[in-house]
């Protein structure tokens, strides 16, 4: 729905003119609603690990005479506090992204370096799950943008591909030059043959805090923010992110980035307050 406020006042010059102003408040209301939802979601997401930490601390106190129990509770305490810290970090990353204009300080970014650095950051999880991450496609692609942000975006996709695949699976990352509607762009694809995503979930996975399999996401430290961050970074580079997926077969995420930075003005309004 569209919300328009119309107000009328007598013109300041006092010559009998009435000025009528129509203001479209729709966009402002939407930003406000998104902000409210975000705060509600953040509070909800923080309450779970904070509650767990409090319970575990209590359990630890009660288990003082049982070294094995102490060990068990302490290990869980450390998992929960890591989770809290990851969540807070991602919330900070997201709000920082929303505050900065990455195109204000663009640099030529080497995509080979972005891909390799992103994969290196996922090495621990890949090794733990015995997943080989391969790099293919064209070498030497470059775009204008923020190296740090692009590493975060590709890293989030690789991390997901690892988490939502079975042990021993493969993940493939590739870059290629494409021309879309006459605009030179670089496409980075991250493919897995993991669990896949159903059609109805596909529409929602880029929303903040949306998770299909809460247990699996949580067990791997997922926050439900990873893809929202990817979407934001792609959009702020004038590009986008899309996904192909089939349940039980796997997923391919594609980030498309114009070679010369586009306009950051058309940021997705759903992505929240600035
Ligand atoms: P999370 O922190 O939970 O991984 P994301 O925003 O990165 O959050 O992803 C949202 C949800 O999308 C995940 O919880 C998962 O259910 C689904 N998802 C993301 N990537 C994949 C993938 N490669 N394969 C299957 N499901 C995926």
UniProtKB/TrEMBL annotation:
GO molecular function, one term: phosphoprotein phosphatase activity
Domain of life per record: Bacteria
GO CC annotation, single: plasma membrane
Keywords, sorted A to Z: Kinase, Membrane, Phosphoprotein, Transferase, Transmembrane, Transmembrane helix, Two-component regulatory system
Top EC class for this record: transferase
Primary location recorded for the protein, binned into one broad class: membrane
Cofactor names: a divalent metal cation
Example GO biological process: cellular response to phosphate starvation
Leader peptide range in chain numbering: none
Enzyme Commission numbers on file: 2.7.13.3
Catalytic activity: ATP + protein L-histidine = ADP + protein N-phospho-L-histidine
Residue ranges annotated for the Histidine kinase domain, each copy included: 41-261
Compartments where located: Cell membrane
Name recorded for this polypeptide: Sensor-like histidine kinase SenX3
Protein's organism: Microlunatus endophyticus
């Amino acid at each position: 729905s569209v919300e328009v406020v119309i107000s009328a006042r007598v013109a300041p010059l006092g010559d009998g003119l009435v000025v009528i102003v129509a203001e479209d408040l729709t966009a402002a209301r939407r930003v406000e609603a998104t902000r409210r939802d975000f705060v509600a979601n953040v509070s909800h997401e923080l309450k779970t690990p904070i509650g767990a930490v409090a319970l575990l601390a209590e359990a630890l106190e009660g288990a003082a005479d049982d070294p094995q129990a102490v060990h068990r509770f302490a290990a869980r305490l450390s998992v929960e506090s890591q989770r809290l810290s990851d969540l807070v970090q991602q919330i900070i990353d997201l709000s920082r992204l929303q505050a900065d204009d990455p195109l204000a300080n663009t640099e030529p970014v080497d995509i080979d370096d972005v891909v390799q650095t992103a994969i290196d950051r996922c090495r621990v999880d890949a090794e733990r799950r015995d997943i080989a991450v391969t790099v293919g496609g064209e070498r030497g692609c470059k775009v204008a943008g923020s190296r740090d942000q692009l590493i975060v975006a590709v890293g989030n996709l690789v991390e997901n591909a690892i988490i939502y695949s079975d042990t021993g699976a493969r993940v493939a990352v590739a870059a290629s030059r494409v021309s879309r509607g006459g605009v030179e762009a670089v496409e980075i694809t991250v493919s897995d043959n993991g669990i896949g995503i159903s059609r109805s979930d596909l529409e929602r996975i880029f929303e903040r805090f949306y998770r299909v399999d809460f247990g699996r996401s949580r067990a791997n430290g997922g926050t439900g923010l990873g893809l929202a961050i990817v979407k934001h970074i792609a959009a702020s580079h004038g590009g986008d992110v899309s996904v192909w997926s089939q349940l039980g077969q796997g997923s391919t995420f594609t980030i498309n980035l114009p070679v010369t930075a586009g306009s950051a003005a058309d940021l997705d309004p759903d992505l929240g307050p600035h």
